[in-house]
Amino acid sequence: MIKRTIILLLQILKLGFFYINYLLDDFYKEKENLELFKNYKNSILNLILATFKKYEKRMINIDRKLTECDDRDKYRLYGELITANLYKIPNKNIDKIEVENYYNNNEIISIPLDTKYTPSNNAKRYFKKYSKLKNALEVVNEQKKETIKDIEYIESVIYELDTAKTLEDIEEIYEEISESSIFADKLNFKKKNKKKKAKQLTKNKLASFNPLKYVISGYTILVGRNNKENDYLTCKYANKHDIWFHTKEIPGSHVILKVNPNEQVSDDIMFEAATLAAKHSKAKNSSNIPVDYCKVSFVKKPNGSKPGYVIYSNNKTIYV
């Protein structure tokens, strides 16, 4: 009897050791995965932030150029006043002239001249400078619009990374930025990689489509986890009568409230969906967050626009 008891105790103790070893293996594996996740996330974050700083500097240069363009009308005025007064200006190289400004009650204005040129040539140079800045203004304004869109896109990727929970989430973000020319220099793309066709989510390929799903009072609400998934969720998966939500001018997820055609949705459910849009946005820790909403049929994705970018109309706003 004693012998059998000892054997039984040894077996239990042996199983205990196996169980402890199993727990230790599981602990170290989880710790290793967590370290891998942190390192992967931080390396991509550093890459994105470096790109963000680059575009911030670009915006500073654009604003500086726009400030320079503010002087264009002054140069046109100088050219006009010099030309109008040429008959009484000595035809020799001088450093300035003082003339009446007929645009401002004939107030005397001093116009600087380049002594390397005659007054008439100075006038031509001022007109040329005016034309150059006028043309530059159109170009630089367009550059500013595009740069603002680029910065907004980068901010949306930073938001994605901030909310990533798994290695799979990080991998999908890396895949997204790998397909964007914005990050090309930081990723050291080769030409052959640039020609590689971007992977697209389609209705026949749902492997990468796994939005967050909430069921509230019988209604299904879907939330995109990243920009590519946002595009698919809104532009391909959702029906035109479903309702689309997104934080107003704030990076965040696309949220789709699934509804039946012509269905009247209660204010409570609309508020719940808007709350989810606020929760899954950069403003999640703020209060009184504006959330725009409209039918999916009023949401459009411009050709060639960046992942996650859409335009919409016929929208209303809820504050949550």
Note down, in words, how this protein is organized.
- The structure is a single chain.
- The protein has 320 residues and is α+β, with helices and mostly antiparallel strands.
- It has helices at 2-69, 72-84, 119-163, 167-178, 184-187, 191-194, 227-237, 267-279, and strands at 96-101, 107-112, 212-216, 219-223, 243-247, 255-257, 290-295, 299-300, 311-312, 316-319.
- The termini are far apart.
- Residues 189-199 and 201-207 have low confidence and may be disordered.
- What is the overall silhouette? elongated
Helix segment count?
8
| Strands, count | 10
Q: What share of the residues lie within helices? A: 40-55%
Mean of all residue-level pLDDT scores: 87
Task: Assess the beta-strand content as a share of residues.
Answer: 5-15%
Biggest beta-sheet profile: 6 strands, antiparallel
Uncertain runs with pLDDT below 50, 5 residues or more?
189-199, 201-207
- Secondary structure class reads alpha+beta
Q: Major sheet: order of its strands?
A: 3-4-6-5-7-10
Order of helices and strands: HHEEHHHHEEHEEHEEEE
- Total individual domains: 2
Rg from Cα: 32 Å
* C-alpha end-to-end distance: 72 Å
In short:
The chain has helices at residues 2-69, 72-84, 119-163, 167-178, 184-187, 191-194, 227-237, 267-279, and strands at 96-101, 107-112, 212-216, 219-223, 243-247, 255-257, 290-295, 299-300, 311-312, 316-319. By secondary structure, the protein is α+β, with helices and mostly antiparallel strands.
